[in-house]
Every structure is written in C-alpha cells, then in structure tokens.
Amino acid sequence: MERWDLYDINRKKLGRTHERGVQLPQGSYHLVVHVWIQNDKGEILLSRRHPEKHYGNLWECTGGSVLAGENSFEGALRETKEELGLELDPSLGKFLCSEVRADFHSDQWFFKSNATLENLFLQKEEVIDAKWVDRFTYDKMLEDNEIVPTLHYPYHLFKRLYTGD
C-alpha cells in the first residue's frame, strides 16, 4: 500500500498521509517527480509506459509519486531505481522547476548518466521499454503523439540550467 504525504496549495505539509488509489480530499495535493536523464551525447532516456496504465504505450521520462516521509529528491532517485533499475549519482542531480497541477505538485529533475540500455532493469508492471533519443527524434515522437501529453518539453527545461530562465 503506497502512502503519500498531503500538502496544501502552497506546498505546506498538512500532517496527514493518503493511500494511493483513493480520491484525495478536496484542497489536498500530493507530490510527483519527473526525472529527465541526459547522457554525454545530449540524448535523453525515455521509458515506455505499460499498456494497462493511463497513457499506455506512450513514452515519457521516469517519474511518479513521492512516498510519505520522502522529499522530492529522494523520490526522484527511488522512482528511477524502481522503474529502470538505474542508480543515479545524487551529485549529478539538479532541480529544474516546480508547478501546481490539478491535485499535485510536480517537480522536474535533471540528471546526467551514461547508463547503457543493457544495464537497465525495467519494472515490468510500469515500463515495457526504454531508449535514448536525440532532440530530433524526441521532436518527431512529440509530433507523432508518442509522448505522454502532460510532460513539459525537456529542452526548454534544460535551458534553465544554463541561463537561469
């Protein structure tokens, strides 16, 4: 049973937890992370969602809900380990941005890694495939509606790392 900490709209913890799968109390939010992983060639690592999940068979960055007692950074590291079997170097992680969505706070993270696909261990209930893609391929996948539509465009997010915008 997965439990999440509950937050208010201003991201203040409410001192209560919530069980996944049960409707959130009105005015409550939970915390979600999206983890963008880029290699030294400038490619980003995408994973393909299990067909029985919401947005099944579409490609996305790794991510998920932060568990009760975790912070956003810890959740990003855990989700990546669970879904891809990839242990990220914590010193290579950078926070990109946060936003409030319908019933959750969404944190975007950036990590560097040169992991090979052969060394990934996919969580079969969540992920059915993984691949590294360059910007041209990502743009084509986006155009062809192969990317989860609620994701940010990662290259705009990465620009923040270098310009502060």
From TrEMBL:
Listed GO MF terms: hydrolase activity
Signal sequence coordinates: none
Family matches, as InterPro entries: NUDIX_hydrolase-like_dom_sf, NUDIX_hydrolase_CS, NUDIX_hydrolase_dom
Presence of keyword Cell wall biogenesis/degradation: no
Keyword Methyltransferase belongs to the record: no
Cofactor(s) recorded in Swiss-Prot or TrEMBL: Mg(2+)
Pfam families attached to this UniProt entry: NUDIX
Protein's name in the database: NUDIX domain-containing protein
